[in-house]
Design a protein that fits this description.
CATH superfamily of one domain: RutC-like
CATH class of one domain: Alpha Beta
Mean pLDDT: 80
Low-confidence stretches: 1-9, 21-35, 162-176
Strand order of the largest sheet: 3-2-4-1-5
Structural class: alpha/beta
Order of helices and strands: HHEHEHEEE
Helix content: 10-25%
Number of strands: 5
Strand content: 15-25%
CATH architecture of one domain: 2-Layer Sandwich
Distance between the termini: 52 Å
CATH topology of one domain: 60s Ribosomal Protein L30, Chain: A
Radius of gyration: 21 Å
């Protein structure tokens, strides 16, 4: 499987005459894919997008909206934090009271996820007080992806504010 330490332990145990040795070890997220394939499920690295807006630039409001966004993400996509490879949060320049990653890191299971906060490029007339995320995670290839756009950020992707179609479903053809 590409884990030399495990292969070395197995070889050493055979030399000592130990049979049926059980191993318990920690696998980094980056190595998890090779094990998930062994269980008969086709896993892929997938990207999930989302955004929300804050009514004001305070720790309390930003914590409320980031928590709401991540709760909805977990509820609609039904994955565990251990499946997440990384999260990039971007915020508009008018939000600087707290890092969204610090809020996410306080959630159960999220403390081992690689996270980065960046400032969104400013474009005149763009949505203000906006918090976005881009998450990369290992998910079953057949799983539906639900991108989460809440509050005023729903206007960024109105096509994604509706329930997502599963990849296995056929699209309905238009007669127009």
């Amino acid at each position: 499987m590409g884990f030399p330490q495990v292969e070395q332990l197995a070889f050493m145990s055979e030399e000592l005459g130990v049979k049926n040795l059980n191993f318990s070890f920690s696998i980094p997220n980056s190595s998890l894919l090779c094990f998930k394939e062994d269980f008969g499920v086709d896993w892929q690295m997938r990207a999930i997008r989302g955004a929300t807006t804050a009514s004001e630039n305070t720790v309390e409001v930003i914590q409320e909206v980031v928590t709401e966004l991540l709760d909805e993400l977990e509820n609609r996509n039904q994955f565990q934090p251990k499946d997440i490879i990384s999260v990039t949060f971007s915020v508009t320049r008018d939000l600087d009271a707290v890092f969204p990653a610090a809020i996410a890191r306080a959630r159960p299971g999220w403390d081992n996820v690689a996270m980065l906060d960046v400032q969104q490029m400013h474009v005149e007339g763009s949505l203000q007080r906006c918090i976005r995320f881009l998450i990369h995670a290992y998910l079953p290839a057949s799983a539906s992806i639900h991108h989460i756009y809440l509050r005023n950020a729903a206007s960024l992707r109105p096509d994604w504010s509706l329930p997502q179609i599963q990849a296995s479903q056929q699209a309905v053809k238009s007669k127009v």
